[in-house]
Amino acid sequence: MKNILSILIISLSISCSSEAQNEQQSNRVDLAEIPDSKLDTATFAGGCFWCVEASFDQIKGVYEAVSGYSGGETKNPTYREVSYGRTNHAEAVEIYYDPTVINYETLLDIFFVAHDPTQLNRQGPDVGKQYRSAIFYHDDEQKRLSQKAMKEVEESNAYGKKEVVTKLNPYDKFWIAEEYHQDYEKKNPNDSYIQNVSRPKINKVREKFANLLKY
C-alpha cells in the first residue's frame, strides 16, 4: 500500500528548531490529489495527535491517518507555534477511510473511546486549547452524525455524568505536521510518553473494537 504522505506532500518540515522550518509550508491534504480515489475523509482532534493517529491507524478500512493542525487562523503553523498556544489550532488527525469497509458513525464511536470528550481544553497531562476535543465536519451529514454521537455519549454516562465538551466546527484547512510526528508511536515505541499516555488509549481502542483491527 502506498503511503498517502508520499502522494500528497510536496514539502514537509523536518526540524522544529531550524529557521528553515519556519519558512516551509505544511501542505493542505487534498483528497482530490489521489487519482481515482474512493476514500472519504474525517478530521478529529482529541489531545495529542500521536495518540489519536495510532488509535485509528490500527483500524480496518483506514487507509491512512495523518497528524496535523486544524481549527486556527495561522497559515503553515509549526509545532512550536501550536504547542505554545499561539495559533488557536488544535493538534488534529485527518483520517482517510474506505466507506465500503468502515463508516463515519463507527469512526465517531472510536473517537469517543480514544479520548475523554469531557475534558475541556486538555487531555490528561496535556493542557491548552491546542489539546481540545473537536470534530471538523466536512458536510452536513457528518455534522448530523456527530451531533447524534455526542448526545449518545453524554446520555450513556460513559464518562460519568459529565458534559461532553467536544467542539463541532466546519472543516476549513488541515496543515500536515512535521515529518517526525507522522507514525510517531510506531517509530518511538519506547518513548515514555508513548508508553504512559498513548499506549493505554490505543489499547483501550484495541479492546473495545477488537473485531475491527488490522492486526
UniProtKB/TrEMBL annotation:
<keyword id="KW-0560">Oxidoreductase</keyword>
<comment type="similarity">
    <text>Belongs to the MsrA Met sulfoxide reductase family.</text>
</comment>
<comment type="function">
    <text>Has an important function as a repair enzyme for proteins that have been inactivated by oxidation. Catalyzes the reversible oxidation-reduction of methionine sulfoxide in proteins to methionine.</text>
</comment>
<protein>
    <recommendedName>
        <fullName>Peptide methionine sulfoxide reductase MsrA</fullName>
        <ecNumber>1.8.4.11</ecNumber>
    </recommendedName>
</protein>
<dbReference type="GO" id="GO:0033744">
    <property type="term" value="F:L-methionine:thioredoxin-disulfide S-oxidoreductase activity"/>
</dbReference>
<dbReference type="InterPro" id="IPR002569">
    <property type="entry name" value="Met_Sox_Rdtase_MsrA_dom"/>
</dbReference>
<feature type="signal peptide">
    <location>
        <begin position="1"/>
        <end position="20"/>
    </location>
</feature>
<feature type="active site">
    <location>
        <position position="48"/>
    </location>
</feature>
<dbReference type="GO" id="GO:0008113">
    <property type="term" value="F:peptide-methionine (S)-S-oxide reductase activity"/>
</dbReference>
<keyword id="KW-0732">Signal</keyword>
<dbReference type="InterPro" id="IPR036509">
    <property type="entry name" value="Met_Sox_Rdtase_MsrA_sf"/>
</dbReference>
<feature type="domain" description="Peptide methionine sulphoxide reductase MsrA">
    <location>
        <begin position="41"/>
        <end position="193"/>
    </location>
</feature>
<dbReference type="Pfam" id="PF01625">
    <property type="entry name" value="PMSR"/>
</dbReference>
